[in-house]
Amino acid sequence: MSMSSFVAIGLVNPKSPTNVGGIMRAVGCYSADAVFYTGKRYELAASNGSAQYNTDTKRASSSIPLKKVESLLDAIAPDVKVVCVDLVEGAIPLPEFEHPEKAIYIFGPEDGTISQQVINNADAVVYVPTVGCMNLAASVNVLLYDRLAKSASIASDDLIRSSRDTNNRVRVKR
């Protein structure tokens, strides 16, 4: 991300270490700046060794902060726009949404939704048009991909070479 941009993910009381790990991998892939979360369920689940799965295989959590906060709205600077992402009546479909330069994208818990208070304080509320609800980590991936796809393109063979698995050397035959 450029110096003038800021992208954070806000998670309302997540419960699954698997989802949080998948989200950390996503923020690493899409160069987000931070992940904030509220509640106690994630820490409780992550403290149980059998519940923790290593889904952050790129170890993004070693360079991107994952921070517990009391309030997602208080966790960011005043110039950062609050964008709630959830299946909420009256929300903007993600394909029609124009992403702000600086944003925190707030997602509800796996088994709930974002509070009306947070929705009321949002600069925008968007949803991913699907039939049924998606997995939390999948939703974060879709949102971050949409932001990247609508920004200045970074696509190149150099990016492919630096991003792919070490066992992948396949090329398109020209």
UniProtKB/TrEMBL annotation:
It comes from the Bacteria. Coiled coil: none annotated. One of its GO terms (biological process) is methylation. One of its GO terms (molecular function) is methyltransferase activity. The keyword Methyltransferase applies. The keyword Signal does not apply. Residues 8-145 form the tRNA/rRNA methyltransferase SpoU type domain. InterPro entries: Alpha/beta_knot_MTases, RNA_MeTrfase_TrmJ/LasT, SpoU_MeTrfase, tRNA_m1G_MTases_N. Keywords: Methyltransferase, S-adenosyl-L-methionine, Transferase. Belongs to the class IV-like SAM-binding methyltransferase superfamily. RNA methyltransferase TrmH family. This is RNA methyltransferase. It comes from Shewanella schlegeliana. The lineage of its organism: Bacteria, Pseudomonadati, Pseudomonadota, Gammaproteobacteria, Alteromonadales.
